[in-house]
């Protein structure tokens, strides 16, 4: 490309709007909050480190909420793309790469460089972990560890960025309720309740995670641990996990599709829908990406099924099948899928590959729900091709890499195993072309020019 052509292309791009002084101030405060967290991480004085941590969390949390209101609350309601493809932070630019490196580095430290030694030292995260000791003692009656630190930051990210989502999508009743749902389940069931169980000397248990996502909950070692240490409550935990995995999940997916879990309950989805929302447009919509999705996610589901079956057979026959290799098989899956894929890649690559990398390519629960949704569910997204203006808003906001516009142009219903039912395509459509429905299975693969009586229309 010649220099004159490049200059002409640069001139053709609209300039980014100026950032107001108020927004710059809040961004500065957020930066100061993160700086205070760094001070807490490396300050040898425990009291001063704790003060720095709480000051940093207060500064960054308050500033994020104020920034969200300044950015979205003062503007007219509606999905606004806000020059996403022009900003370095949301178009795989330098800022996005820095963010990806920081996130990936944090997960690497968390998984492999923060295991405690005999003195309770958590490596490079030791300072941050121990600043939360009073909070952990109050909630769980035990000192903090690296996973309590992670859970605290994880929950705070969902709550704060959930507040941002509420401002941004306040015009859509569906999005508001859905966002409140993931915030509620993360705070109540994935953070507070496990801590309360530990406070009363019961096994830590997450009622919103089931097999095959929480793969160890139905493995022999975990089942024995829950029954022996939780007694009656432990038996209920095992029963709950089995019922939710094999009975409730198929029933709920039949009626509502995989959205009942992936977009309303799951903590992984909750982080993707809140903290990952600025990156949803980065998901690859190509057919090649879809082929890789199929090649990866279903073998992972098959692998955890195989691991579960082999572990139980090995348990029943007292090690006659795998022997000591059983523990190695379990650790291999936990390392490759549970740590590298779901953590390091699944979250660390948000700014580069979009917010649903793990859900789209690796999550065995998403694969399980997707098969049910594709072949047995009443759920679909209906389209009205006569009203479609081919603006592409629906495809741009689809975090699962579905080219929604192609379906809308043809007036075909969208029945895809990967669709998590977030409803953002319908919320972003300026013509009301797309509707999420739970209609009868008869005629499910045919276009529907009207809304069925028991369907759920997205208010946009």
Automatic annotation (TrEMBL):
GO molecular function ontology, one term from the record: metal ion binding
Gene Ontology CC terms: plasma membrane
Regions crossing the membrane: 51-72, 93-113, 147-167, 179-200, 232-255, 296-313, 333-353
Residues forming coiled coils: none
Keywords: 4Fe-4S, Electron transport, Iron, Iron-sulfur, Membrane, Metal-binding, Transmembrane, Transmembrane helix, Transport
Residue intervals of the 4Fe-4S ferredoxin-type domain: 379-407, 411-439
InterPro entries (alphabetical): 4Fe4S_Fe-S-bd, 4Fe4S_Fe_S_CS, Electron_Trans/Redox
The protein, known as: 4Fe-4S binding protein
């Amino acid at each position: 490309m010649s220099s004159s052509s490049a200059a002409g292309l640069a001139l053709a791009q609209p300039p980014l709007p100026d950032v107001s002084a108020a927004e710059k101030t809040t961004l500065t405060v957020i930066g100061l909050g993160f700086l205070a967290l760094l001070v807490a991480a490396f300050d040898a004085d425990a009291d001063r480190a704790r003060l720095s941590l709480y000051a940093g969390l207060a500064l960054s949390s308050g500033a994020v909420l104020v920034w969200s209101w300044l950015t979205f609350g003062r503007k007219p309601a509606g999905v606004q793309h806000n020059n996403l493809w022009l900003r370095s932070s949301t178009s795989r630019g330098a800022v996005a790469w820095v963010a990806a490196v920081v996130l990936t580095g944090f997960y690497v430290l968390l998984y492999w460089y923060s295991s405690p030694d005999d003195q309770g030292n958590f490596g490079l995260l030791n300072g941050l972990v121990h600043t939360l000791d009073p909070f952990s003692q109050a909630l769980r009656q035990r000192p903090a560890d690296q996973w309590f630190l992670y859970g605290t930051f994880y929950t705070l990210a969902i709550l704060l960025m959930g507040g941002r989502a509420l401002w941004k999508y306040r015009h859509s009743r569906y999005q508001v309720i859905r966002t409140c749902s993931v915030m509620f389940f993360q705070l109540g069931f994935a953070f507070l309740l496990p801590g309360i169980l530990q406070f009363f000397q019961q096994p830590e248990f997450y009622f919103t995670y089931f097999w095959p996502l929480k793969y160890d909950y139905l493995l022999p070692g975990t089942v024995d641990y829950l029954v022996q240490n939780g007694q009656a409550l432990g038996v209920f935990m095992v029963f709950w996990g089995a019922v939710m995995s094999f009975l409730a999940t198929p029933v709920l997916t039949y009626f509502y599709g995989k959205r009942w879990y992936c977009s309303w309950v799951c903590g992984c989805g909750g982080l993707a829908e809140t903290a990952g929302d600025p990156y949803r447009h980065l998901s690859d919509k190509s057919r090649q990406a879809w082929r890789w999705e199929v090649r990866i996610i279903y073998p992972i589901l098959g692998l955890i099924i195989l691991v579960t079956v082999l572990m139980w057979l090995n348990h029943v026959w007292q090690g006659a099948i795998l022997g000591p290799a059983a523990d190695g098989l379990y650790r291999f899956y936990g390392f490759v899928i549970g740590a590298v894929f779901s953590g390091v890649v699944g979250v660390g690559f948000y700014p580069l590959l979009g917010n649903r990398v793990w859900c789209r390519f690796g999550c065995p629960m998403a694969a399980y729900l997707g098969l049910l949704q594709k072949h047995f569910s009443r759920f679909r997204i209906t389209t009205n091709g006569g009203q479609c203006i081919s603006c592409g808003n629906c495809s741009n906001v689809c975090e699962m890499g579905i080219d929604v516009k192609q379906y809308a142009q043809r007036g075909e219903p969208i029945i895809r195993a990967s669709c998590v039912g977030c409803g953002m395509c319908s919320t972003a459509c300026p013509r009301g072309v797309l509707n999420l429905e739970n209609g009868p299975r008869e005629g499910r693969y045919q276009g529907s020019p009207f809304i069925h009586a028991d369907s759920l229309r997205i208010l946009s």
